[in-house]
Every structure is written in structure tokens, then in C-alpha cells.
Design goal:
The chain has an eight-stranded antiparallel sheet, with no helix packed on it. The chain has a seven-stranded mixed sheet with strand order 2-3-1-4-5-6-7, sandwiched between helices. Strands 18, 19, 20, 21, 22 and 34 form a six-stranded antiparallel sheet that branches. Helix content is about 25%, strand content about 30%. About 15% of the residues have low confidence. Among the domains are: about 180 residues, P-loop containing nucleotide triphosphate hydrolases (Rossmann fold); about 80 residues, Elongation Factor Tu (Ef-tu), domain 3, CATH 2.40.30.10; about 80 residues, Alpha-Beta Plaits; about 110 residues, no CATH class.
């Protein structure tokens, strides 16, 4: 049987209780919680990622149990697990009720005509509403067009954490005996055809350091024997002869050697190195393969390639394209829900999956193995239906306090969500059911938690493909982009933190083009985060003031995958705090042809100049007393030095031969031209000099410039000339 449910409804906890009460552990054995979650990431995140099987023995009946993931992104594991079982245990939280993944797993179970036992878990919660949840489950069965005999399912109420179950509503049991009785009575024994040739369906893969690759098979018909010579029917239809070298059966949490296995057994075999999921072990004389296992198509894609940033090689030791490609290919062997496509670049590949979390888990696993990667922005997988472009749509269920209802509906409306249902349980919380395009949910969780002050709960799962919803604008902030390589300084961050949320801390290494913060406005802004405080011999009261910095926003890999929905790509190193974002990479093959905001082609015609701010003789003295850091255009600097032969400002050397410097109006115009040029085009040929309308040189560039510009106030004209 398979235990299926939405995430955090208690599947693995229930398996723990069943193992405890069936004698799987010694009395003095120390047992960890959620013993089936054996992976490091599973224990850290508190979720099940891979479907795993175990077995318990109750009254001389062996029950093979498959623990499945509850997160929608790992739905492929659930679909694969359902091919191994004869029935399902549908677990539902007594307070939360059925959620999107509950609908998904139930629909898949009923499509395979598997009997269902409903388990209402956590009935001891103070906010439990058991009767209402049972009614919601009945409505769910009707919603997905279940047959009358499928709706007639048994119900058991339990508290898996405390290890008891009962069939009486409102009662309290002593142990899990009522659940074991229901399982024995309602889950059918394996069915098979007497005398049928061998059929053993490969449903999962594992590995052993001693015997190599292990194939986990469900024996459908016939008998499998250790050392037996048989045939392997492959996915492409070919049949080859193979031999089983080792065989194991699962007893509790261990694999024990076995000599033979019959119908219904879940067995692990060794000796076939190139065996794949979905293939069938058959009789060599009479091969009758099972159908190939099929899972739903992926809905999201992300481009993964080698790390091309200047910081490459500082944290990881696996950097080449060959290593990255081999690792991705190995992931495809055991993960049926992934797809990998080639791109225009030889060192980057498009990886398609169910959702952001599945892609983030893959990247995190590769990072821990020593890989350095560049990860592109998530994009939805589109397809054409009857000549029209369709995109994936997800069913979203949101539980939110009443006071945040307006903010949440406004957020979803901007993402073109369609409300399906809204229920107020009378407890101060409202449940919303929406259909939202998958594009609108990329990066939505962070904004949703901000608007609900961290109290909202959101769950979603793939629903269907629908016609393209049009353009979505989901981000209202821009980016701060480093304009040079070097270490970050506290002096530079002190001036920037007031206008942006920084993502780097002092002494961190940055490079030109790396995103270092989130701008409070919608525009992108290039900044110098490596600026150092200039040393001076003059003493001042505030010269050694303590620098107070706001802690930076540290992005984990899962949150970075939401952030890259707007930013183009980011290198991923072994240190999670150094998962950077950059707009300069052309990693994403599908979007590399579209210029980014920093790569727009300049308009060759003179732009309309901004409103000029004039410096008159009456306020010139006040300009001298103005701190240059508080004067955005720096006009006071030109007015301050108006009578000098030459002076430097902002990388330009201004010469006093011409009256242009002495005249305040033209001095203002010079800075307007410089500012306009700086914002017009980034990364173009260096600026050489500034000339006025008569062609005379006003100033020359003392360091590498940005681009050209032109300003005209009707009387004077300033042109910035390229090298």
C-alpha cells in the first residue's frame, strides 16, 4: 500500500508509529523521528523527497508500505509509487482538510482503480474540525467524478504522533490495531495469473557500494530466483538476456538476502548495471513486458551550466561542462519527472521539472557535491494546442487571516489569478481557492509572506494547460549592480543601504555586473560597493564615527530560484551565502536574444534635456557651504572652483582656459550632460573629452568613461565625444 497525503499531514510520522508497534526496533534502541526520511536534505527541510518502501508484519501478514512525498513538485515520485501498490491510505489533516496535493494524489489513485482508506490524522489538535473535514473529502471525491463504489470508503481517526487510532468519531484509541485491521480487510492481496510467465516491473533504482546498481521491482507474475537467467525488456522495445547476481527483500528498515520472490513482493536485485525505471524482467522464452511507466509532463524549466563568473573555482572542484553534464545525466536515471534539453551553448542545458523546489533540490545536491554552477531564471514550459500557445496553470489554496484578505486578493489579481472558491470557517481565517498561471507564482511566496506578516499559508499543484494569459508584471523593484571587481567596503554600504536592501556584506568579493542589492525603485542602478574612505591629515570630530550597517538579505538556494525569476542568472558556489545573481550572463538560451535593461541600444538623436538647475551669484556662496555628498548633481563643486585654472571632479579634469567653467549656467549644463551620458548606455567606448558648441575642449576624461551625450538649453550646447 502507499500512504499519500499533502505535505506535513503526517505520513512519515504514521509509518514511524506502525514500525514501532510491529516490533521493528529493540526496546533499548534509540530511534530518531521520521526514520524514513533518511536523506540529509529531507531531515533538514522536514519533507519527504524520495518515495521509499518498508514492510511490517502483523498477525503473520506482511504489509509492504510505500512512503511518498507530499510536496507537489515531487508528484512524479507519487505516480511512480502508485504502480507498486494494491491500495492507498489517504491521510488528511483534521484541521487543514484536503489541500491541492490531496486532490492530485487522489485523482491518480482513482485513475488506477486503487481502493482508498481515509485516515483523518491529528484529531487531537485543538482546532480540529473532524466532521467538516470528512465532508470536504466526500466533496473532493465527487469533484473528481469518483464512482459510487469508490466513494464508499472506510474511515479511521488517529493521532500518529501518539500512536493510536479508532474507528469511532470522537473516541480515543490505545494503539494502531484498528488501522491494521482496516488495512488487512480492505487492501486486497496481490492478484496474479497462475502459470503466467515472469513479469517483474522495475519501479525504482538504488545503489550499493558493494554490488553496484540495485533495481527495485514489483513482481507481478511468476517467480524471481537468485542466479536466474532471464530477459530484460527495455524501454525502446529491445530484449536482452541478463542474470541476477543478488536479491534482497525489505524487512522493516533493512534489506535481507533472499533466494526467491513471488507475486506482490517488492524486491531489490543486483547484477544489471544499465537497467532503468519502467523496464520489465521477463521470461526469456516468453517475454511479455509491462507498459512503460508514464508521469505527467514538467511545467517549469531552468537553464543550468558551468560557472562563468570571475569567482569561479574558489569554492568548488567540479567546474567543467563534462562533469556537470555527467551529473545531470545520472540524475535522469532515477528521476522520471525531469527532462534535459540541449541549448545553443555547449556548456549549458535546459532542465525541466515540476516546480521550483524540485529544481532547487537538484542544484543544492550538486552544490554539496562540489559543483559550481550558473543557474538561469525559471521559465514555464509552454506548448501549442490547436495552433494556440498554452501555458501551465496551478491550483492554489491559501489560508490567510481575515485582515490580510484584501492584500492577498490584490496580489493574485495582478498575477491574473481566477478565484474558484472562498470559505470563511468562522475562526478568523479564510480559505481561498485560485487558478493561477505558473508564471505568476514564480517569486510569489516571498511577497505573499511579507503582505501577510508571515501568517499566510499557501499550497499549489499543477492543474492543467490553458491559453496564454498575456504579459505579467510581478516585480516593482530594480537592482543594484556592482560596476567593478573587488571587496565590499562598509564605507560604501553605509551610503547605499538607505535606498536599497543589500545582499552583500563587507569584505565579500564582487565582480562587475554582479547584483549586490534590491533597489527600492523600479530602475536598475550601477553602484560602487568597493569605494574606500580617502585618508586625510586633517582631524575632524566625525571622521572616526562608528559605521552602522543593516544586516544583508542572505538568499538561500530555494529563495534565489524565486529571485532569478527576474534576474537573468546566478553562479552557485558551495557557500550558500555566496549564491550571487548577475544580469550579464547570457546563460538562458531562450532569452539571450532579448536585450536586458542594461543592454538597450541608445537613441542616436539628442534626448530631451532634464530641467536645468542654475547656480546664480546670489546662491553661489551657499553652494560653497553645501556638502558635495548632499548635492546630487555636484553643481556646487563647479561653482566652488569656478575661478581656478583647472580642477578635477568625478573623473573629469576641467580646464580654466574657457569661460565655460566660469559661467555657472554652462557649468550646470556640463554636469547635466555627464549625468545623462552615464545613464544612456553602459559599457560603451570610453569618453575622451567634453567640447562646447564652438568645438573647444572644456574638459578631458582622466579615467575610463561610459558613453556619449548631448545637452542644449537653447543658448549653450555641450557634447560628450567618444575616444
Amino acid at each position: 500500500m502507499a500512504i499519500v497525503a499533502h505535505v506535513d499531514h503526517g505520513k512519515t510520522t504514521l509509518v514511524d508509529a506502525m514500525l514501532n508497534q510491529s516490533g521493528a526496533f529493540r526496546a533499548n534502541e534509540e530511534v530518531t523521528d521520521r526514520v524514513m526520511d533518511s536523506g540529509d536534505l529531507e531531515r533538514e527541510k522536514g519533507i519527504t523527497i524520495l518515495a521509499k518502501n518498508t514492510s511490517v508484519v502483523w498477525n503473520d501478514i506482511t504489509m509492504n508500505i510505500v512512503d511518498t512525498p507530499g510536496h507537489a513538485d515531487f508528484g512524479g515520485e507519487v505516480e511512480r509509487a502508485l504502480t507498486m501498490v494494491d491500495g492507498v491510505v489517504l491521510l488528511v489533516d483534521a484541521a487543514e482538510g484536503p489541500l491541492p496535493q490531496t486532490r492530485f494524489v487522489l485523482r491518480k489513485a482513482l485513475a488506477r482503480d486503487l481502493p482508498v482508506i481515509l485516515v483523518i490524522n491529528k484529531v487531537d489538535r485543538p482546532d480540529a474540525r473532524v466532521e467538516a473535514v470528512v465532508d470536504e473529502v466526500y466533496e473532493l471525491f465527487l469533484d473528481i467524478d469518483a464512482r459510487d463504489d469508490q466513494i464508499d470508503f472506510p474511515i479511521v481517526y488517529c493521532a500518529a504522533r501518539d500512536g493510536w487510532a479508532t474507528t469511532e468519531l470522537g473516541g480515543k484509541g490505545e494503539d494502531l490495531e484498528p488501522l491494521f485491521h482496516l488495512l488487512a480487510d480492505h487492501i486486497p492481496a496481490p492478484s496474479y495469473i497462475e502459470g503466467h510467465p515472469l513479469q517483474a516491473w522495475v519501479t525504482n533504482l538504488d545503489a550499493s557500494p558493494y554490488v553496484g546498481r540495485l533495481a527495485l521491482c514489483r513482481v507481478m507474475n511468476g517467480t524471481l530466483t537468485k542466479g536466474q537467467s532471464l530477459a530484460l525488456s527495455r524501454v525502446d522495445g529491445s530484449v536482452s538476456r541478463v542474470k541476477i547476481s543478488e536479491m534482497y527483500l525489505t524487512r522493516f528498515l533493512e534489506r535481507v538476502p533472499a533466494m526467491s520472490a513471488g507475486p506482490g513482493d517488492l524486491v531489490a536485485i543486483a547484477g544489471i548495471e544499465d537497467i532503468l525505471i519502467g523496464e520489465t524482467l521477463v521470461d526469456a522464452e516468453d517475454p511479455r513486458p509491462m507498459p512503460v511507466i508514464a508521469v505527467d509532463e514538467p511545467a517549469l524549466s531552468m537553464t543550468i551550466g558551468t560557472n562563468t563568473s570571475p569567482l569561479a573555482g574558489k569554492d568548488g572542484d567540479k567546474l567543467t561542462a563534462r562533469m556537470v553534464k555527467d551529473r545531470i545525466d545520472r540524475e535522469l536515471v532515477g528521476n522520471m519527472s525531469l527532462r534535459v534539453l540541449n541549448t545553443e551553448r555547449p556548456d549549458a542545458w535546459e532542465v525541466q521539472a515540476r516546480g521550483e523546489l524540485q529544481l532547487a533540490i537538484l542544484v543544492e545536491q550538486m552544490r554539496r557535491e562540489g559543483f559550481e554552477l550558473t543557474v538561469g531564471k525559471p521559465q514555464v514550459v509552454i506548448k501549442e494546442v490547436d495552433g494556440k500557445v498554452h501555458e501551465p496553470v496551478e491550483r492554489v489554496t491559501i489560508d490567510v487571516p481575515e485582515e490580510h484578505l484584501g492584500a492577498v486578493t490584490q496580489l493574485l489579481a495582478a498575477r491574473k489569478g481566477r478565484m474558484e472558491n472562498m470559505v470563511n470557517h468562522g475562526t478568523g481565517w479564510v480559505r481561498l481557492d485560485y487558478l493561477v498561471p505558473s508564471r505568476g507564482l514564480i517569486g510569489f511566496r516571498t511577497e505573499f509572506l511579507t503582505e501577510t506578516r508571515g501568517t499566510g499559508v499557501i499550497n499549489h499543484t499543477f492543474e492543467d494547460f490553458e491559453p496564454w494569459f498575456g504579459e505579467l508584471r510581478t516585480r516593482r523593484t530594480g537592482s543594484l549592480i556592482a560596476d567593478r571587481n573587488g571587496p565590499v567596503t562598509a564605507y560604501a554600504l553605509m551610503a547605499l543601504q538607505e535606498r536599497a536592501q543589500m545582499m552583500v556584506e563587507p569584505t565579500a568579493d564582487v565582480y562587475n555586473g554582479m547584483i549586490v542589492g534590491e533597489n527600492s525603485r523600479s530602475e536598475d542602478m550601477e553602484v560602487n560597493v568597493c569605494k574606500e574612505k580617502q585618508l586625510t591629515n586633517h582631524r575632524a570630530a566625525a571622521s572616526d564615527a562608528t559605521v552602522k550597517l543593516t544586516p544583508p538579505k542572505v538568499l538561500s538556494l530555494s529563495s534565489s530560484s524565486q529571485t532569478t525569476s527576474v534576474w537573468k542568472s546566478r553562479p552557485t558556489t558551495r557557500a550558500c551565502a555566496r549564491s550571487h545573481s548577475t544580469r550579464t550572463s547570457e546563460l538562458d538560451a531562450r532569452s539571450s536574444s532579448r536585450p536586458s535593461a542594461r543592454q538597450k541600444t541608445p537613441d542616436p538623436s539628442p534626448a530631451t534635456p532634464p530641467v536645468l538647475r542654475h547656480v546664480t551669484p546670489t546662491n553661489r556662496a551657499r553652494c560653497r557651504r553645501t556638502d558635495m555628498r548632499q548635492n546630487e548633481k555636484g553643481v556646487s563643486a563647479l561653482a566652488e572652483h569656478a575661478g581656478e585654472s583647472e580642477f578635477g571632479h568625478d573623473g573629469f579634469l576641467f580646464r580654466g582656459e574657457r569661460s565655460a567653467i566660469v559661467e555657472p549656467v554652462l557649468a550646470d549644463l556640463i554636469l547635466e550632460a555627464v549625468d545623462h551620458a552615464r545613464g544612456l548606455l553602459r559599457g560603451q567606448p570610453a569618453l575622451d573629452k567634453i567640447v562646447d558648441c564652438a568645438g573647444a575642449v572644456v574638459a578631458t576624461r582622466t579615467s575610463r568613461g561610459q558613453t556619449c551625450g548631448h545637452e542644449n538649453d537653447g543658448e549653450h550646447a555641450i557634447t560628450l565625444v567618444h575616444c
